[in-house]
Design goal:
alpha/beta, Nucleotidyltransferase, domain 5, 2 domains, three-stranded antiparallel sheet, 11 helices, 8 strands, 35% helix, elongated
C-alpha cells in the first residue's frame, strides 16, 4: 500500500481516477499488494483482463473469474466504482465527515437509501480486522464511559434514549519546545478505542478494557468501583475520585473528556444525532478519523485497503436489526 499514490486535492483525484477502469486498477493494487494471486487455485501471475468489464479478472490457469469487489464492502454493488471512490475520498478528506444527505447531494444520487448504505458499508471497512490493543511503554491510558445521544421532547423530564459508550485513549507527552507545552500539562491524545457497552458493571467495563488495552499498561479511571479489579487482571490501575471537583478531572482525565466532547459535537453537528441502532458504526468512523488525524490523506487509501477485507451490510440488514456493526473487539 505504501507505493500507491493518493490524491491530495480534488484536481489530483480527478486525474488519478478519471473512470471506472482507473478505479479498478487501484483497487486491484490495494487488494493484492505483491501482485495478483488467484483466490481459487492460488496461482500468482498476470490475469486476463476485459476492457468492457474492468471490475473482473480471469485466472490464466483455472480460468475462473474474480470480481474485484468480491469479499469487499462493495460486493454485489450496482453502483459504479467511481462513485465508491468519490465516497471514500469525501468521507476521508473532509475534516467533519459527511452525512448521507450531504453525500446524496454532492454526488447527485437519486435515492437517499443509496447514499445511506454506501456510507455504512464504508464504515464497516473502517474497522481493522487485525486491530491491536492500545497502550505503549512510557505512556498511560485513560478509560471512562459516557452517555451519548438522547432526547427529551415529549418524554417527560430528564434525558431519554441515551446509549452508554466506553472509551480508552492513549495519553502521550507532547514534544517540548512548542507554544502548547503547558496545555493539558503537555499531554496529547494517541490512539482511541470506542464501543457501545450494555451497562456500567464490572463485567462490561473490564471486558472493554481487556479488549482495548494491552496488559501491563497504566490505566487511569475515575473512582467507579467497576474498575477496581483491573489490577488483578494484569493492569497498573490509578483510580481518581473526582468527588464533584471538576479540577480533578482536568488534572487526571483531561484527554478522555476532550475525546467525548469532540465525539458529541461531531455527532450533533455533522449528523444531527444518530440512532442507538447505528451508533457503533459512527463510533467506528470517529475512531478511524481520530487515529489518522495527523495523516488525513493516507486515510483514503487506507480505507480502500481495509475495505478489501471486511464484510458489510445490505440495506435490508441495516433496517432488519440482523446486522451488528463491527467493533475492534470482534477481531482480537
Amino acid at each position: 500500500m505504501k507505493d500507491l499514490p493518493f490524491p491530495r486535492s480534488l484536481p489530483e483525484f480527478q486525474k488519478l481516477f478519471p473512470d471506472d477502469a482507473a478505479c479498478a486498477a487501484y483497487l486491484e493494487a490495494a487488494r493484492w499488494r505483491e501482485g495478483f494471486v488467484c483466490p481459487h487455485c492460488g496461482t500468482a501471475g498476470e490475469p486476463f483482463r476485459f476492457e468492457a468489464r474492468p471490475g473482473v479478472l480471469r485466472c490464466r490457469k483455472c480460468r475462473k473469474d474474480i470480481g474485484l469487489t468480491a469479499g469487499t464492502v462493495m460486493e454485489r454493488t450496482h453502483t459504479p466504482l467511481s462513485t465508491w471512490f468519490w465516497a471514500a475520498y469525501l468521507v476521508t478528506s473532509l475534516s467533519p465527515g459527511m452525512s448521507a444527505v450531504q453525500f446524496q447531494r454532492q454526488l447527485g444520487l437519486s435515492r437517499y437509501e443509496t447514499a445511506f448504505q454506501i456510507l455504512h458499508k464504508l464504515r464497516a471497512g473502517m474497522v481493522r480486522p487485525d486491530a491491536d490493543r492500545i497502550g505503549r511503554p512510557g505512556d498511560h491510558v485513560e478509560v471512562d464511559e459516557a452517555w451519548i445521544g438522547g432526547k427529551t421532547k415529549g418524554e417527560g423530564r430528564g434525558v431519554h434514549d441515551q446509549t452508554l459508550v466506553a472509551c480508552a485513549v492513549e495519553v502521550r507527552q507532547r514534544d517540548a519546545g512548542t507554544l502548547l507545552d503547558k496545555r493539558k500539562g503537555g499531554r496529547i491524545a494517541g490512539r482511541v478505542r470506542l464501543a457501545v457497552v450494555p451497562d456500567r458493571t464490572a463485567k462490561s467495563l473490564t471486558t472493554f478494557v481487556q479488549d482495548a488495552v494491552l496488559p501491563g499498561s497504566m490505566v487511569v479511571t475515575d473512582g467507579w468501583n467497576s474498575y477496581s479489579g483491573l489490577q488483578k487482571i494484569g493492569y497498573e490501575h490509578l483510580p481518581v475520585s473526582e468527588n464533584g471537583d471538576g479540577q480533578v478531572a482536568d488534572d487526571y482525565l483531561p484527554i478522555i473528556h476532550m475525546v467525548f466532547s469532540n465525539l458529541k459535537t461531531w455527532l450533533k453537528g455533522t449528523h444531527h444525532g444518530v440512532s442507538p441502532q447505528h451508533l457503533q458504526a459512527y463510533l467506528n468512523e470517529f475512531s478511524f478519523r481520530f487515529n489518522r488525524r495527523h495523516y488525513p490523506f493516507n486515510s483514503f487509501r487506507s480505507l480502500l485497503g481495509l475495505a478489501g477485507m471486511n464484510e458489510a451490510p445490505t440495506y435490508a440488514d441495516l433496517y432488519s436489526g440482523e446486522w451488528e456493526h463491527p467493533t475492534f473487539s470482534d477481531h482480537g
